[in-house]
Amino acid sequence: MRPGFAALFCVAILIGGSGRSADAETEPPLCNYKVVLEDPEAKAVEVAVTCRKPALGFGFADDFPANWISSFTDDSGRTLKRSGVAWRSQYGKIDRARYRIDLDGMARAEDDYDSAKRSGRSVMVDLSGIIALPTDIDGASNDTILAIAFFAPNGGAIATSLPAEGAVHHVLAREVDFAAALVLGGFERRRIHVPLPFSLGENEAAGAAKNPQGIIDLIVMDGQLRASTDEVADWVHRTALANADLWRGFPVARSTVVILPTPRRSNVPFGRVISTGGILVLALVGSEIEPRALYDEWVLIHEFIHLGTPFIRDTGAWLNEGIATYLEPIVRYRAGWRSAESVWEEWIGWMGRGVPPMTRGLSSGSPYWGGALFALMADTELRKLTGGRLGLEHCLRTILAEAGDIATAARTLPTLALCDHEGPEPVLSRMAETHLAGAPVDLGGLFAALGVRNSGGKIELDDAAPLADVRRWLLDGSSHAQIKPIAIPATP
């Protein structure tokens, strides 16, 4: 995000999470927004805002929308005066305003999924590009609730991950600059049902939720893709099921997945998760990728793994990113989408990048491979100590149940301590403290003990190695694990 109107609220959101205060829960929304899509291709939107307390004006939390406002008036039709990214009344405080946004111009000028981007008949835009916040209201706070209703009377649609009560969506004022994007205009939509861990089901105490189901709202933006929407939905569904096997159920009850077609690419080049204002997973999908080849890509599995761990940033991104980097090939192996040899080939080729951050302090260097090497070493130690009974995945299920998912903020050592309650020794806490300070790592010795080596470009697995059983448990889950492959649809 660009620094702007709400920059001072960044630390509260990254560290404090997105939970509402008790006062915010009991107060009615400070302002109600009516966002109207003017046309089926998302060329423009008109926004009418009504506040229960008068304001001197309204301002955007980010700077990119300001030049695309074609009018900003009060309820009497009088034009408000622009000052930077804000519009102020020259006639005293007002409680109603209306403005129109040239969404097409904004999206084509920005051309960036971090702000606004067009794809065919659809536009993805940050909430901060649509919602102008009231200024100079007595008694308002960062925890003030805003209510937003979306309308598309002339065709097209609007998709959002914002939590809703009926047709009205809610967001805190301080979350606007960081909330997940909206998708407007012409796009394809599918609803995907996924199994949940029992603890996420409703009426658990009464035993009513025997097979609790979660919902993924899949949004496929307009644009060229070789895969049909149904084939994309099948890929997302099967990828979610592969992830659910790791957690014993998909880790979040509601989420939105947005697929952005990317011209002239034959892979899935990028993905990310935003958990403020609902959970949204964005995946860029190359226009040239064949449907079968989607299952060879790692990005969506990686992002789905993020959903099951709290947002941890007090010591850097290494724990979140390392867990996802380490577990992603394991999830695909258990789904039957890759071989054990290919996993070890990847780890032998890439884990070395994790040695510098592990030896110099995990807060530095590559968070992906530093964290992945930490995960490999911790998983190995846990399984060695417990004869395969416990591993990193068991620890993560405990964290999900007790600390929460990606929408929850947490701290490194208290989170890892949750794992240590179940094991014979405080493996993860001890390792984190050791390697946050920097400590030697014998990666070659670890691979040798596990019985893995690269011989002339061919991976050899030694079943006589001291930790050969541990090597198998790392990928299979335990000595009693039953791998349940997820079939990939046959290519027509």
The general outline is elongated
Spans where pLDDT lies below 50 across 5 or more residues: 1-24, 202-209
- Strands, total number: 24
How many angstroms does the end-to-end distance come to?
43 Å
Summed over residues and divided by their number, the pLDDT gives a mean of 91
Structural class: alpha+beta
Helix content: 25-40%
Side by side, the strands of the main sheet go: 4-7-2-1-11-14-13
Q: What value does the Rg take, in angstroms?
A: 24 Å
Q: Beta-strand level of the residues, as a percent range?
A: 25-35%
User: Number of helical segments?
Assistant: 14
**Main β-sheet, in a few words?**
7 strands, mixed
Describe the structure in your own words:
The chain has 14 helices and 24 strands. Strands 4-7-2-1-11-14-13 form a seven-stranded mixed β-sheet, with no helix packed on it. It has a five-stranded mixed β-sheet with strand order 16-17-18-20-19, covered by helices on one side. The radius of gyration is 24 Å and the shape is elongated. The N terminus is likely disordered. Helix 9 packs antiparallel against helix 12. It starts with 9 loop residues before the first helix and ends in a 16-residue tail after the last helix. The protein is α+β, with helices and mostly antiparallel strands and 492 residues long.
What characteristics describe this protein?
492 residues, alpha+beta, 7-stranded mixed β-sheet, 14 helices, 26% strand
Please describe the topology of this protein.
Blueprint: H1 10-16, H2 22-26, E1 31-37, E2 45-55, E3 57-60, E4 69-74, E5 81-83, E6 86-88, E7 94-101, H3 103-110, E8 116-119, E9 122-125, E10 132-135, E11 145-151, E12 157-159, E13 164-165, E14 168-172, E15 182-185, E16 187-195, E17 213-221, H4 229-247, E18 254-262, E19 270-274, E20 280-286, H5 299-306, E21 311-312, H6 318-334, H7 340-350, H8 355-360, H9 367-386, H10 392-402, E22 409-410, H11 412-420, H12 427-436, H13 443-450, E23 452-455, E24 458-461, H14 468-476
Parallel strand pairs: 1-11, 17-18, 18-20, 21-22
Antiparallel strand pairs: 1-2, 2-7, 3-6, 3-10, 4-7, 5-6, 8-9, 9-15, 11-14, 12-15, 13-14, 16-17, 19-20, 23-24
